[in-house]
Amino acid sequence: MPEVSYYPGCSLEATAKDYAESVEGVCEALDIELRELPDWNCCGASAAHSLDHRAALNLGARNLALAAQGPSPLVVPCALCYNRLASARHELLEGDDLVIDEIKALGGGYAGVEVVELNDYLSSPEVTALAKQRATDLDLSGLKAVCYYGCQGQRPPAVTGKADYENPQGLDRLLGALGVTVMDWPFKTDCCGASHSVPRPDLVFTLVAKLYKRALDQGANCIVTGCQMCQANLDMYQEEIAKQMGKQVYLPVLYFTEVMGLALGIDETPKWLKRHLVSPKGLLEKAQLPRQTWERL
Amino acid sequence: MSEPIAGAPNGEPLSSDRPPAPSPEEAIRPDGRWLAQVEAASGVKAGACYGCKKCSNGCPLSFAMDLHPYQVVRYLQLGQMDKLEGSSTVWICASCQTCLTRCPNQVDLPRLMDWLKEELVRRGQAAPEEKVRLFHQLFLKGVAKRGRVFEGELMAGYMLKTGGAFGPEAIKNARLGLTMLKKGRMKLLPERNKDRRWLKALFREPKGGSHA
Ligand code: SF4
Ligand code: SF4
Ligand code: SF4
Q: pTM, whole model, 2 decimals?
């Protein structure tokens, strides 16, 4: 049973509870043990790196120091948290002069921690093969999905160490292996502006409208994400953005872990799906999935 | 006169007329001392930029910026800090890292934008995007207090400060909040770190958060 360190991040405790539960459910079904970092702290998100570089680095350093004590790698379900932790690690390779004594006292070792995005971890060839082996024979081909990776998980490559940062393939391959009809599209890593969703929702609407339009042009009937910020940003304002676009938009925004839940036949999956604002009910029904997956959504 | 060319970044029509040469008072007097200082303080090699504009062509937020990202670098090279003080660009940047990823000279623009924001706030400069600044500051204040973010408090604090607690925006937000509550996605009580000594040490001299 592989054991990994796990950094859930603040929103998985609240607004992204659906994601948190699906992550735990899928990992349990695949015998992956998530060891939550003891007493982890907020990554600082966009606020810390925007206004206080020293604080941003220290917030990352503390989490990395905690992770250095546990199993490797450190798995992170949110693209932004991942980016903040990987950036801190990258910077700490150069030295820890800015780190305060109280955090240094945790024992250091930050730069040695391997930080991995959850969707990369679960779409590795080994886990994909395992998931495929344990999957039920449910036919998911009625889900025509575009995979949306978001921006913070990929760039800059000097920090993320990724080779396919302009056109990532992990989720595409994983979902394809589980029988989903995966559509290619060019906006996999385009920014949706989530950090501005409160103060400048108008910017978000413009960016997300572009994503919807392209996903529909591509023939997709849903969007699959690997990050709760991307999910929230694409799910929460869909009605309003569609109104502004003057178009009918019905694009449920699913977590890749929820699709894995369907494939693996995890009973709780409808409970997770129920928490979305754009209900996936119509999608699942039309994709001819069994009644028990959608009847109570 | 020929037709103006549409599509200028800030919505102004482009004219094919040649602009008049600036008067001696208006002419930019390059001041190279700034660049060296900014490079040393931010760690960004802004002097390496040769103005190819690749950063700006790929920037997803440039439609909402009053200066293109490459113009920010150029003004820094010329020592024209005053041009940046009132600009929305550093606040609109979403740190998506597209520009840095594609820059042939690996000029770390997102880091430069962050450094400028911090510097402008430190100087007590009013931000042209007050709401963006306020949201960041309230967020950071919450982190300094608990080590974790409490989304409910953050939203309430933001709405109070922006005077949006009663307007149509507030009703919309409250409705969204209620929906989230019904869906079991709203937490009513905050989480906090058990160990908070390091927080006190880290935020002893509150930066950024002090004006909120
Ligand atoms: S939520 Fe938007 S801004 Fe954040 S990682 Fe996803 S795409 Fe990027
Ligand atoms: S891409 Fe780099 S070199 Fe080209 S203009 Fe932008 S910052 Fe300058
Ligand atoms: S990091 Fe900022 S400036 Fe660079 S491309 Fe993204 S939004 Fe534009």
A: 0.91
